[in-house]
Structure formats: C-alpha cells, structure tokens
C-alpha cells in the first residue's frame, strides 16, 4: 500500500503492488486491511480490487455488480477502461464477489453498492469507477515521466501505451512495477472530458457472449464442492400450512440418499430472508438420488388460512372495493377538486383495467452452494444483491463480517426474484444441520409454485373533459396487494410499491386524485422487472387512448397536448420530469412508425410513453388482425437515458425488455385456487413463441451528455399499452372506421 486519497462518501482509492509486479487499483474503504499477497499475483484469479495490469500489459478489470443479463459485466468495466486508456482487446473481465471487511463487528463494503438488475448499476458507479480508472492512468503517467524524463502533463495515454511528445512510447506492462511504488497525490486525479472518450459511447459486444452461446459460461448452478450433499425440497403448497404426516422409509431406502430433514420459516423474519414455506429436504450424494428419494416421500400437508384463497375471489374483492364508497387505504395524491370539476364536465369517461398475477420464470432456477467451516462460510449464489445475501448468512451463522465469502457468477436471469434470499437461508439451514457442504437445487415446478409474484391489480380511472376539449379532471383508484407487506415497511407506506404520487398524468391535470386500496393475500409478493407501480403505465396509457377515441382525436396529439410546452416539472418524490424529453421520445417513435398514416393504415397503430427515475421511453406498435389472429408487424422503441455507455448493450436491453413485455401481455398469467398456484411449468405458463413476436425491435437511442440513467427494465412499462392501443385501433374501431375517419379528418 502506498497511500490513500479521500473520495466522496468516506471512501478511498487504494493502490497495492502484487507479488508478480502487477499494479492493483480499486476503491476500498477507510481503514481497510491489506489483501493477502497471494491474491495479488499476475494469475488473474480471486482478485479483490477492480484493476490489475501484469508485466505483459494484460489488464484485468472486475465487475462489481451481478450481471443478470443486463450487460453490466461489460458496461461497468468499460467505464474504468476508458479512463485508463486501456486497449479493450487486452482487457479481461471477471465478476467480483462480495467485497466486505470487518469494521469492529460491522460490515464495511469494499466496493460500495453491489446490486444488479435494478436499473441503478451505471448511475451509481458513474463517478466512482471513472475515478478508479483515472487514478490508474495518473500512476502510469508518473511512472512514464520518470522513465522518459518528460513531465507527466506533457505525456498522453493511448490503448495501453504512454506516448511522449517526440513519439517515444512505453507500454503499461513495462511501467507497472514502478507505478505501484509511486506515492499517491493528495487530490483526486481529474477524469476525462467527454470529447476524449474512446470506449464510453462506442458499441461493444457482451464480454460473456462467446461463452454463453458456446455453452462455456459458468453459472452458480454449475458449481459444486466435491463432498457436498445435493439437497432438493418439497415445499408445503401453502406458505402458512403445516406438515400433518411424513413417512421417509421409502426415501431413505434409495441408494445415495443420506438424510431427510424438515425446514420451517423462522418466526419474525421479513419475507425473503428465511424459508418461503415449510419444507422437507432430501439430501443425497447426487442429484438423481435426491430426486428419486424426493418422489418416494409420503407427505400430507395441512393448509392454513390461505387454503381458501383464490385469485378470482381477490379480483372480485377488488372490484367490489372500487364499486363501493369506502375510504381508500391511502389517498396518494389530491390536486385541486375532482368533485367540483365533475360538475363542469362536458364529457366523462370511465374504464376498468385488470392485470394478472405474474411469475418471474427465470431460466436458472433457485440454487445455492454453501460450505460452513468452523469460522468461515463460503457460498456460490446467483443473487442480484450480495450484501442482502450476506445479511441472511451472517444472521444464521453469527460469523464475523469478513469471514463470509460470497461468489456471484453470471446469473441466469433475475427480474427481481433474486433480490430475495429465501433459497440462501434454506441452504445455510441445511448445511448447519448436516455439518457438510450443501448444494441446494430447486426444480422448475418449485420455482413457479413458490415465487415472490407480481400481484394482480385492478384500476378504475375516470376522466373529466371540459367544454374546450381539455382534460380537467382525473380520478384513479387502484386495488392491489402490496409487495411490501411483511417486509418491515410501515402500514402507511405500503402503497409505495404499488403506485407513485408523481406518475403520469399527475401534475398535468389541474384536478387529479389517486387512491390506493390495499388487498390482503397470503401469496408472497415482490418486484418483477421493477416495482409493481410500473404496471400503472398499462392502465394510464390505455386510458389516454380511450380519451382520444371519445374526443375523436389523434392519440399522439392528445398526449402532446397533455404534456404541453417543454419544461421541468417538479416531482413529488424529488427530482424533475423533463416534459420536453418525454415528448421527444414520443415524436421519434411516431415518425419511425409513420404515424402520419394513422387514420389510413390498414393495420392498427398504437403508442405509449412513460418516465422512470430520469429516463424516458416510448413505444409505437403496428398490429394487424386477421379474424382472431393477431400479428405484431412492427415494434419501435425510443429511449433517452442521458449518456450511453454501451449503445449495443443498451439496444439489447431495450429489445429484450420489449419482447418480454409483449410476451407477458400476450400469454402470461398466474392463477391460484384453494391457495395453490395452478401453473407449474412453461407449458402452463407459456412464454411467447418467435411466431407471436415481431421480427425485430427497432431501437432509437437519444444522444445525450447528462449523467447516465438506468435502463435495465426501462422498456417494460410502455410496450404492452402500445400493443393494446394498436389492437384497439385494428379491431374495436374497425367497425366504425369510415364515419370515424370522416369526422377525424374534419376535426384535424
């Protein structure tokens, strides 16, 4: 260690010299202990810091956030590599495991925030990782200045080489030994100005793409310890049920089966931090034996109160609440006077929208590999949140913070399911009981039957239109079961997962009311590609089309008139909504889909827009109907996320989220009867086929120089309502197309 630099949030940059003369650079916390020298060699294995450069000029960069398919394993290292002026062709990337140190019994996170698949990876890392790369570049320049006898400020870096004004060149590899011994500057080295970026903003393929398509990618489910027992579970069909009878004789007679154990959710623990339901575990020497033993278990489960619940009954309860006059659980927002505005109405419109329960259906089922030694825990976990997984392990083991090692390989899909760690708790519980390493594997049926689902919701929206065709009132009521129940959130904040006080069109309508009615359900619930409040986009954007239809108006013009002049609108939750940027993405998709032909198109055209945490998105869909057969002819999406790190990766994220949203809208719903989920596989929960989806998703990326916003699930909210609006135009309006066209042409 040669010194430290003060960084924001009480964090430090630290430089270490490895045993093989490698330069190691990474963000570490104040008072951090040195890493063992054995980890700092030039072998590119088991590295803690972000950057390592060996004497041959090869560069290793660690990706701190789990990559669940979002591309952060490419985009985050490219931020560092750009500031470092590294040759990307000589960069290797590895996923960093959990970085934690012991601060008097409390965890100190070495890498700061480690959270994947939530849309916040790049915004959270933007400043920090640029500083990491800038520090490494500064050290190399200082070393080159000594070698070349030229002041550092007259040198420049390019593709892993330092270049002098007279053309002399020295490679990074030849400088690392000297660079690692240079004392750090007391000030943070300046980061690049945007015109000097070479990698940021340039397209790059996913660093794991070749390994994925050739089957060489390693996921957590592929890992094992030689002496680990394989554990498979039979969960109680009801989260509040109990085990009435068990006979294990036939199971224990299966060759290879070692033990049969029972698990119970820990009392008073939040959802997602303990077992999701009572379970019986079969532990065996191999997977086949474990599954064979599980099939021979004789079990009888007794339902709890949830045994009488059904998704149909909950929907009827929601409808009854919205039909009645009961006060809402929470009045989320109340601008102006909706009731008074209703007395001045020239026209009124009301519509109800119902959205189903949804499962995550990740490609990689839940699994966890754990070894518990006397004073150390080692895990390989497909998690989106390593620090949350650490909290579960630490509570169950009582180990010191830095004695818990969590490795996170590439994750086979997350979508929010792996923000919860019930499966980690189950694996650790079993490892404690058998005093051996455990490899817990869930089956596909378990994944469907014991998920943290996105809850169904019912939306009732009323619009009040004035005599000048302006929208003067909006009354939205929503009923759903909050995803925050039993998660330590106060009752008066349970609505925050279900809706937003500043969601569209709040702030754009003078008289605006939003109410939330809380429903009770025993079904576990959680986020799915964003918090459930994003589902409001479907109801809002579909309803705006219905308003346009009632007024016999172009839906694009309805939206643009509602947005008004470009301006910054203060949001209730902080920050601003840039109405100009939102209108811009709307116009971009309209132009690309040829919205000018909206009235004359044989097919239906639909459009929708939304905003999420400083990012803006719009979709336009063209759909045709041949009888009952729906064909999605085209899908266009425009996004504005500020500065783009990797355009190719961003386009992939947007296209993937669009197809996922369309698949969900076309095919997917979870139902439950007598408290039990009815879908158990991809046959009963059918993802859309290629034939059902558009041949391509046209992605328009708005260039920008603002700090980057997240894009992980940005395209999810607007694809489905754009499709619904397109189908509405292609089918429901068709029977009145000629008189409607004449009236629209007269008005326009």
Automatic annotation (TrEMBL):
Alphabetical list of PROSITE patterns matching this protein: TAT (PS51318)
InterPro entries: Ald_Oxase/Xan_DH_a/b, AldOxase/xan_DH_MoCoBD1, AldOxase/xan_DH_MoCoBD2, AldOxase/xan_DH_Mopterin-bd_sf, N-heterocyclic_Hydroxylase, OxRdtase_Mopterin-bd_su_IorB, TAT_signal
Segments forming domain Aldehyde oxidase/xanthine dehydrogenase a/b hammerhead: 214-305
Tree of life domain: Bacteria
Protein name: Molybdopterin cofactor-binding domain-containing protein
Pfam families, per database record: MoCoBD_1 (PF02738), MoCoBD_2 (PF20256)
Coiled-coil spans in chain: none
SUPFAM superfamilies (alphabetical): Molybdenum cofactor-binding domain
